[in-house]
Write a structure and sequence with these properties.
By secondary structure, the protein is of the alpha+beta class. Helix content is 43%, strand content 14%. Strand 8 and strand 9 form a beta hairpin.
Length: 407
């Protein structure tokens, strides 16, 4: 179930009420109210330029809301979740902050964050996959701020035309390896947390899904998921591990294709300037699909400035600011009308992927399922210890036990 848009007179009334409440929160003085300070936690700036972007948006918000001060607390990304968890436990959480996508459902279901007020945004104006990363039990608990995904990188010398389907992918990989036994057709994802993050996008490309969280059913032992993992198993035949386990096999011309994200594009251009490569959407079986990553923003239940906090989050995500904000955070915009910060020709493939990206399951334990159950299952199948079906059947059983689900 998804939150639909509220329309008609009710929507108008809600919008007016929300605007009135937010205006009151943003005003200093009046009825004896003091000026307000809004505390927002975020990751440490990636670059000095990123910091300048966020600082400008902060000043613009304060100018539009006299009497309001936005206090930005910037924390190294590797320490962020630990510090936030401690703040929540000690009841000293900020008004609002960035939250890793898989943690939204956990914090939503245990009451740590607030549900977004109705009418806050026009949901049709956002990428569905990005917005869905903020849902739990069909309700919206935050706003996306930036998003990213993966796509197919291909060596144009070895792969003049990128494959669009699974069958074409296997045929292309086999052809490359047959022409030169020292070159792998593809750098197949491994059985680790990263590979497990990529797999659901491939599963959706076969018309499947990992779980039905509303119905409390584990589905990744069903045919679409098994077929997705079997695809990777089949690709290993033309992509031997002794080749792909080498240092940077794609960049060094030892693998014709790989799956990666936009973060690798500038690095390859800088460190491997002679590599002529392209980026294309992921091949699929029945429908275009992909995965999603990025940052969400939420309002904590302990906030005394919740209405103002929501106004700030919406300001970050609006069409005027979101292009620059998303780039500062290291991803692509989530607002459909926001301008994408200029990039190379490779970004077109990622933008196509984001149109069909699927959010990870809204399951509080999903990080554990991803890293500790699905990842080793993938590795067991790729190394031939068990079949794809056996690996996922066992993994699904462990997941049902962990979640307490019968389906």
């Amino acid at each position: 179930m998804s939150r639909g848009l509220v329309r008609g007179p009710i929507a108008t009334a809600l919008a007016v009420a929300l605007a009135t409440g937010l205006a009151a929160c943003g005003s200093g003085g009046g009825n004896g109210s003091a000026d307000k300070t809004l505390t927002f936690w975020m990751y440490q700036d990636r670059t000095p330029q990123a910091g300048q972007v966020i600082e400008k948006v902060r000043k613009d918000f304060e100018k539009a809301n006299p009497g309001v001060t936005v206090k930005l607390v910037k924390i190294p990304k590797d320490d962020y979740n630990t510090k936030l968890g401690s703040a929540v436990a000690s009841k000293s959480a900020p008004d609002a902050g960035i939250l890793d996508q898989p943690l939204v459902s956990k914090y939503a279901l245990d009451g740590t964050i607030k549900e977004a007020p109705a009418g806050l945004i026009d949901e049709a104006g956002f990428y569905k996959g990005a917005l869905d990363t903020n849902r739990a039990n069909g309700k919206l608990y935050g706003l996306p701020q930036d998003q990213t995904t993966v796509a197919l990188f291909y060596n144009k010398k070895l792969v003049p035309t990128p494959p669009k389907t699974w069958d074409e992918l296997k045929q292309t990989a086999a052809r490359v390896h047959a022409a030169d036994a020292k070159v792998a057709g593809m750098n197949v994802p491994k059985g680790d947390g990263y590979g497990a993050w990529i797999l659901p996008g491939v599963v959706h490309g076969a018309g499947g899904q990992m779980v039905d969280d509303a119905g409390k059913k584990v589905l990744f032992d069903q045919p679409p998921a098994v077929e997705a993992l079997q695809l990777w198993v089949d690709l290993v035949k033309s992509s031997p591990r002794q080749i792909t386990d080498s240092d940077k096999p794609f960049e060094n011309g030892l693998a014709a294709m790989t799956i990666s994200g936009p973060w690798d594009v500038p690095t390859i251009h800088e460190q491997f300037p002679d590599l002529d490569f392209g980026v294309a959407p992921l091949p699929y079986k029945t429908e275009p699909a992909g995965n999603i990553g990025g940052e969400d923003s939420v309002v904590f239940s302990s906030s005394k400035n919740a209405d103002l906090a929501w106004k700030w989050l919406a300001f970050l995500a609006n069409e005027t600011n979101n292009g620059a904000v998303a780039d500062a955070f290291g991803g692509f915009p989530v607002n459909l009308k926001a301008q994408v910060v200029a990039g190379g020709p490779e970004q077109a493939a990622f933008l196509e992927q984001l149109k069909v990206a699927h959010a990870r399951p809204a399951v509080p334990q999903w990080i554990q399922v991803n890293d500790e159950i699905i990842a080793p299952a993938i590795e067991s199948a790729l190394t031939g210890k068990v079949t794809a079906q056996q690996a996922l059947t066992e993994a699904a059983g462990k997941t049902r036990s962990l979640l307490g689900w019968n389906g």
